[in-house]
Fold this sequence. Notes:
It is built from ten helices and ten strands. The protein has 294 residues and is α/β, with parallel strands linked by helices. The radius of gyration is 18 Å and the shape is globular. 44% of the residues are buried. Zinc ion binds next to loops.
Amino acid sequence: MPSPVINGLSVDVEEWFQVGAFEKVIARAQWDGLDSRVERNVRAILAMFAAADVKATFFTLGWVAQRHPALVRAIADAGHEVASHGWDHQRVFTMDPAAFAADLARARDALEQASGQAVTGYRAPSFSIDARNPWAHDVLAQAGYAYSSSVAPIVHDHYGWREAPRFAFRPLATGALLEIPVTTAEIAGRRMAAGGGGFFRLLPYGVSSWAIRQVNAAGRPAAFYFHPWEIDPDQPRRNDAPWRSRFRHYTNLAVMAPKLERLVRDFAWGRMDELAAREAAWVDSAPAPLPAAA
Ligand SMILES: [Zn+2]
């Protein structure tokens, strides 16, 4: 039997109140006064991964690392990769290159101090690298990142870069920086982000497992992600958010943990930096097309 394709497993480490869905009803200045849930949720995820003997990547906000350095150290000490999710979840296309470079540096400093590990991977908040800001990959390369997993090659109401490749590619003409887009599936002629988030939590387990099987059957790895708040049905409720945001945020929180336990057992998983190294070798052997010039 051929060995299974090893997929990339990742957790975007942020508080329940730091999501784009609540951006308009919760100001950053209020964050420190809200109920912090990230510590207990990430500890539960670490226990789940330990029970399944799985290693993963935790794309962590610098804001969280500054307030919970022992948690970040525990992630690293358990053999997982600590990578960057930026400082405070500012979408990249709302910044200019200098502000983005400063956001990256501030987050990396907090993450490296807490983890004792070098940070070489980055995930943009809300997949906010797209046709609007291709310069972001230049800034990442200049800062010495090995890989980014920040592009959703789809059309979505909040994000997406439809013309981007579905699998790993080198976004710059020179340099080694690799971009690993979130996994997509083609369903009824529409391409959807099938690598986690609402797709995994809101739809039946069989839809996500089908999508990952399709990708793996073609010999390609999936890149999957979820958030600590998604396994937390007891988090505070915000009834002042738009109904669509509330639906996306609160549906199926109680079934998420058992669903994830199933997912980590049904497929082979590993850290994103290790996936990036394997994907770099794949890109070099079968060059993928560059994204269309913006
Ligand atoms: Zn995020």
